[in-house]
Specification:
about 25% helix; flavin adenine dinucleotide binding; Putative flavoprotein involved in K+ transport; FAD/NAD(P)-binding domain; alpha/beta; monooxygenase activity; 2 domains; disordered C terminus; 5-stranded parallel sheet
């Protein structure tokens, strides 16, 4: 007989476990399926010196919160991994590790059928909690780079010592790219960095972490329905900053003064392996600084309106500008022996055989609820608010879905 559960949660990261906690509290029969191990992405997909970029006090999961001695600090990779695993243990989450879901389909008459590596299973309700970052993205132009140059995705990077001797090219300045470039720079490697369009934010301003100011201002509570950016925010890039060594700004201009080579957007690799670069570096740096300055303006306005006594500090002044923007990069001539591609991920929901996706393959949902009754998503970037895809608000999103699923279960059958 096919195994059946009221609910199946797919994914045992912080999102799936948060969902499991709420289902457990409601006494809902459920199981959490994890293709690998609990919280494995925190170890398998992060570099050795990784830290959170949000303070530890923001790590609040349902029924569980950071209780260490450094609430204003930033947990390292290993500490985050331990935090999530201890959370699973705290309520004996019904996780089955090493069970991959190969396909998810609707059943005639209602509910869902799952084909898994451990056999078939059915459920009345399913919550897909596998996040929004699945397949490492590396552009096809990388295939024209000499095979003598090692190429890895940022999710594979661990430390500089694991790369061949020589200079390193990092492509992308989102959170991972900027922090990996810093990591290599601090290890003494010659870094060449292709800057993208990611914004930046100051770590501290007027006596506090900027995250603390933004939290008090309610920025993390603004729903995507009310946000001026609308649904496009779901595709936006997060600001680069770091929690390393207690937290600090990441200033690419300062890195340039210290010897890091910066470039504009990569546009092509020609037949001889020469990288073609668009002259967008200064524009990218100025745009990132403008975002950081705008956040400071918002904080200033909040402080003034609330009458808060906070120290003042001078505004950032650019410490470096490119004299000339390079339009090409010869990897061999520059001594570059490895490339780290930090250009993001692609979503992969091909195994979800239910018609709930938009034209680009993204789940079509409102706060995680899809048009297919009983099928929800959790842990997506900007699922409802800025904090949805991370620790800040996943608890709130999970509670909302638990209430929604409970409302479905409580309906009387048609005709009764």
């Amino acid at each position: 007989m096919t195994e059946h559960h009221t609910a199946v949660v797919i994914g045992a990261g912080q999102a799936g476990l948060s969902m499991s906690w709420h289902l457990t509290q409601r006494g809902v029969d459920h199981v959490v399926l994890e293709r690998d191990t609990v919280a494995h992405e925190w170890i398998d997909g992060r570099w050795d010196n990784f830290t959170l970029v949000t303070p530890n006090w923001q790590c609040v999961l349902p029924g569980y919160a950071y209780d260490g001695d450094d609430p204003d600090g930033f947990m390292t990779r290993d500490l985050v991994y331990d935090f999530v695993r201890r959370y699973a243990d705290s309520f004996d989450a019904p996780v089955r590790e090493h069970v991959a879901v190969d396909s998810l389909r609707q059943r005639l008459g209602g509910g869902y059928h799952l084909e898994t590596s451990a056999g078939a299973m059915t459920a009345d309700q399913v919550v897909v909690a596998v996040g929004g970052y699945h397949l490492p993205s590396i552009p096809r132009l990388a295939e024209r780079i000499s095979p003598e140059v090692a190429q890895i995705h940022s999710s594979e990077y661990r430390n500089g010592a694991a790369l061949p001797d020589g200079s390193v090219l990092v492509v992308g300045t989102g959170q991972s790219g900027a922090q990996i470039a810093e990591d290599l720079h601090l290890e003494g490697r010659q870094v060449h960095l292709v800057a993208g369009s990611a914004p930046r934010v100051a770590r501290f301003y007027r006596g506090r972490d900027c995250v603390a100011w933004l939290q008090d201002m309610g920025v993390y509570d603004v729903s995507i329905a009310d946000h001026a950016g609308g649904l496009a925010k779901r595709e936006s890039t997060n600001h680069y900053v770091t929690g390393r060594d207690g937290g600090r700004d990441i200033d690419l201009r300062a890195f340039a003064l210290e010897g890091m080579r910066l470039y504009g957007r990569l546009t092509d690799v020609d037949a001889t392996g020469i990288l073609r670069i668009a002259p967008t570096l200064e524009q990218s740096l100025d745009a990132a600084d403008a975002v950081a300055d705008g956040i400071k303006n918002d904080i200033d306005a909040y402080i003034d309106a609330a009458g808060i006594d906070a120290p003042t500090e001078p505004r950032y002044t650019p410490v470096w500008r490119p004299d000339v923007e390079p339009t090409e990069l010869n990897l061999a001539a520059a001594g570059i022996t490895s490339v780290v591609w930090a250009v993001g991920f692609r979503r992969d929901y091909r195994w979800v055989k239910v018609g709930v996706f938009d034209g680009e393959g993204h789940p079509a949902h409102v706060r995680g609820v899809t048009g297919a009754e009983g099928l929800c998503f959790l842990g997506l970037p900007w699922q409802n608010t800025w904090g949805s895809g991370r620790f800040a608000a996943v608890a709130r999103d999970a509670e909302y879905l638990a209430e929604h699923l409970a409302s479905i279960s409580s309906r009387e059958p048609a005709g009764v």
